[in-house]
What does this fold into?
Amino acid sequence: MRKLLFGLILMMFTAFELQAQNYKAQFTALTKEKNDTAIISLLATWENTNPNDAEFYTSAFNYYFRKSQSELLVIAPEPNPKDDEVLSLSDTNGNIAGYITSINDYDMELFAKAIGYLNQGLVVAPKRLDIWFGKIYAFGQLEMYDSFTNALIEALGKIEQHPNDWLWTMNNPLEDAPLLIQESITAYLNQLYETEDDDLLHNMRRIGIKALQIYPNNVAILSTTAIANLLMKDHEQALVYLKRAEKINPEDYIVLNNIAET
It folds into this structure.
């Protein structure tokens, strides 16, 4: 009897997994076709049939996040470095007066709906690192850096509780999760730094403090957090981080140069 029950349960899980893969394949195909009506219908059926499938929430996010985006052409004083072709405008004297460039605009109602699906997905699958990173990425794209920072710190809180046991798409176990996480934290800190917005130095410091509670020996995070403190004129704290980094890697020329600068 126990073997029979186990076999039935196993068959049910297998059926759900195959169904999820089928929905995912349909969603991918319909996305390529840009068939909005069919996509919305599929998402509704998918949610009703298998509301615990994390792939539903990532797919719904991808759809509504993409629909929230639109491209606008504007006249800017500098060309967009991301544009492959740049059209310049000249004044009556032949001098360049500006550039026609494209920027992304967002429908905030659709964006909020997209983020809502990720939040629901994290309730269903709190160890899906791709969902956490997707949320952080989305806020970064809209330059909503306080939300970006809060989402990252919330994710770090979960990572602190479970340093290694993380999943990626299709609930596949994530190999070398700590390495990927640390590289991502460094990239997120650099993203804030490269804005050259001094108001975001506090965000960098918040992220660095939380990250170093989990990865106290990461030289890149120590160094970037030190730079945030240095630019905020907190030289004493900057030196604390830099000295820790130097002790771990005494030959890191960036660390040594920043110690001299501090």
Summary: The chain has a mean pLDDT of 89. The two ends are 72 Å apart (CA to CA).
